[in-house]
Amino acid sequence: MAHTISDECINCGACDDSCPVNAISEAGSKRAIAADTCIDCGACVDTCPVSAISPA
């Protein structure tokens, strides 16, 4: 199951480079994770400075 990004996201982009499959992109005022691309590795979770990423 793909990880999700909550409304706490500050759109800083810190998570982008941590994703090995480039599943994270900008979606308006925050980032979004493409569920069909995410491999559920969790690499993005540790890079988020506001803890806005969690398992779905």
Overview of this protein structure:
9% of the residues lie in helices and 25% in strands. With 56 residues, the protein is mainly β. Strands 1-4 form a two-stranded antiparallel sheet. Strands 2-3 form a two-stranded antiparallel ribbon.
What would you say about this model in short?
This protein has 56 residues and is mainly beta. It contains one helix and four strands, in the order βββαβ.
Low-confidence stretches: none
- Structural class of the helix and strand makeup? mainly beta
Provide the helix percentage.
under 10%
Number of strand elements: 4
Average pLDDT score: 94
Helix-strand pattern: EEEHE
Q: Gap between N and C termini, in Å?
A: 6 Å
How would you describe the shape?
Answer: globular
- Rg computed from alpha carbons, rounded to a whole number of angstroms: 10 Å
Helix segment tally: 1
As a percent range, the share of strand residues is 25-35%
Side-by-side strand order of the widest sheet: 1-4
Largest sheet: 2 strands, antiparallel
Cofactor: [4Fe-4S] cluster
Pfam families: Fer4_10
Function: Ferredoxins are iron-sulfur proteins that transfer electrons in a wide variety of metabolic reactions.
Keywords: 4Fe-4S, Electron transport, Iron, Iron-sulfur, Metal-binding, Transport
